[in-house]
Structure formats: structure tokens, C-alpha cells
Amino acid sequence: MLNEELIIDLYRVGAIKFGRFKLTSGIESPFYIDLRLAITYPGIYKRLVKLMAESLSAFNIDVVTGIETASIPWASMIAYELNKGIVYVRKEVKEHGTAKLIEGDLKTGMRVAVIDDVITTGNSIIRAIRIVRDHGGDVVVAAVFIDREQGGLNAIRREGINAFALFSVIDMIDVLVNNGLVSNELRNSVIEYLVKNRVSTGA
Ligand SMILES: O=P(O)(O)OC[C@H]1O[C@H](OP(=O)(O)OP(=O)(O)O)[C@H](O)[C@@H]1O
Ligand SMILES: O=C(O)c1cc(=O)[nH]c(=O)[nH]1
Which helix (H) or strand (E) holds 150? Predict the structure, then answer.
């Protein structure tokens, strides 16, 4: 299966790691998805971008929104594939030059897809959605490549926005187990962690 090969390729370049990691939300995690590595490999990023562009084509968007930093190259490539423009949301207002929080020419009423690489709590995307809305954008969908299955997609849906992921982490780990790359014990420890670390509030 093509997606199975893609998941194995992601693992081989180190985009799926096991160990001890601190997440942006402060949560500790026994695994980390590092899609920042995947942007260096055309053979990998082209497949991911194509899958995402196909999934977004139903939403009739005008512009793709990236989030500083990891999502910006993805948003750019997806926008290119869809022949749409890109805007991106900064982590902080720039304190010189134009002092903006959103870069690009977002116009009132534009139909926006907000893109991120990975979702945990959903807080990064929800913040971006609110900023885009405050600037007049009509966010019609939020999309990520990988859902860590910790409640982030539902947190976005509670904001009244469609949200989807191309892959969920357990499906990915199952592919790795079935191909002898990861042990069943490791898979079970990830599931145990996920059950204990679901976030219900979001933002
Ligand atoms: O769903 P959340 O709990 O918000 O977590 C997911 C976010 O965390 C990571 O970004 P990070 O804050 O590490 O910044 P970066 O993109 O600059 O690497 C990732 O790229 C997502 O944006
Ligand atoms: O929640 C995060 O900060 C996070 C988790 C993850 O697996 N990958 C990532 O880039 N960020």
C-alpha cells in the first residue's frame, strides 16, 4: 500500500521518534513526530503535499494559511500544488517594519484552510484560526498531516471548524509494528500514554 511505504519512509528519515520529549504545550511524550525533517526529502514531501492538496480540493478555498514555523513550508507547497496563495500567522507580532501578526494579503471574506504539520492539543491551530478570523478571513477547514490523537481535532471542531488529519499516530505505529520496525510493547506503551494524556479543553 502506498501510504504504508510513505509511513515507513517517514520513520526511516527520523520523522517518527521514540524517547522522552517535551511538547509545546508542556506535556511530556514518549514519541515525537518531526515532520521538519521530511521537508528535506522531495520523494517524501511531494507525496504528503499531493495527498493534502487532494483532500483540500473539496473545500473551495481561496488561500492556505501556515503557522510559524514548522507549517510554513508545508502551507507553501500545498498552496503551490493547489495554485492558491499563502498567508502565515506569526508566533508574535513583529516589533519592527510593518508590525504584523499575519503576513500576506489576507482579504475579508477569503475562504481559508489553516494547515499545520502535527496536532496535539490543537492550541496552535485554534490561535491561528482566531487570528485569521480577527483579520476577516473565513476559516473553512483546518488540516494537519498527523494527529497525535490527544484531542486536538475535536477541540477545533468545537470552534465550529471542519478539521481532519491525513494520518493518525496509532495507524502509523501499527504500520511500523506490522513491518517489524517497532515492537508491540512500544506500541502498547504509546497507547497507554495516549489514554492517559488526552486533552479535553483545547485552547
Ligand atoms: O496542537 P498543539 O498542542 O498546539 O501542538 C502542535 C504544534 O506544536 C509544534 O509547533 P512548535 O510549537 O513546536 O513550533 P515550531 O512550529 O516553531 O517548531 C507543531 O508544529 C504544531 O504547530
Ligand atoms: O505537541 C508538540 O509540540 C509536537 C508534538 C509532535 O509530535 N511533533 C511536534 O512537532 N510537535
Answer: none
Q: Where are the domains of the chain?
A: 2-196
Whether the per-residue pLDDT at 201 is higher than 90: the answer is no
Q: How confident is the model at residue 95 (pLDDT cuts 50, 70, 90)?
A: confident
CA of 162 to the centre of ligand 2 (A): 21
CATH pick for 2-196 out of 3.30.1490.100, 3.40.50.2020, 2.110.10.10, 1.20.1530.20: 3.40.50.2020
- What pTM value is reported for the model? 0.97
- Could you report the predicted ipTM of this complex, rounded to two decimals? 0.99
Rg (CA), the chain: 17
At residue 51, φ and ψ (nearest 5 deg) are -60, -45
Which ligand 1 atom lies nearest to the CA of residue 25? 3
Cβ(179)–Cβ(198) under 8 Å? no
Question: Residues forming the annotated binding site for orotate?
Answer: 120, 148
